[in-house]
Write a structure and sequence with these properties.
This protein has 96 residues and is mainly α. Helices cover 51% and strands 0% of the residues. α1 crosses α2.
Length: 96
C-alpha cells in the first residue's frame, strides 16, 4: 500500500509539489548505489547476499567515501564536526 508523503507526516526536502526536484536527491543516491554496488558485484543469487552488499555499501558511503560537496571528507566526519561546532557555541550571549 502506498502512502502519500503528507499522510505519513513527512515533509518534502526541497521543491514544491510535483516539481522535478522532489526526488532528485534520492535518485542521485540510488544511481550511485546501483553503479557502485549492484552493477559491479551482481547479479546476486539471494536476498541475503543483496542485503549484505547493501549494508556494506551504506557503511562505506557514510564512513569512508569522500564527498566532494562537503570538502572531500566522509559524511560521518562532517556530521560529527557539525554537531561539535553546535555544542561549542553558547545558546545565549556570554557576559563579557
Amino acid at each position: 500500500m502506498y502512502v502519500r508523503v503528507g499522510q505519513a507526516g513527512a515533509i518534502a526536502l526541497i521543491g514544491s509539489v510535483a516539481d522535478s526536484y522532489d526526488n532528485a536527491i534520492a535518485e542521485s543516491i540510488n544511481g550511485l548505489y546501483k553503479t557502485e554496488r549492484t552493477k559491479l558485484q551482481g547479479p546476486f543469487k539471494t536476498v541475503d547476499q543483496l542485503e549484505l552488499a547493501t549494508s556494506s555499501w551504506v557503511d562505506y558511503y557514510n564512513h569512508h567515501r569522500l564527498h566532494s560537496a562537503i570538502g572531500y571528507v566522509p559524511a560521518i566526519e562532517y556530521e560529527q564536526a557539525y554537531y561539535a561546532q553546535l555544542l561549542s557555541v553558547p545558546d545565549h550571549p556570554v557576559p563579557g
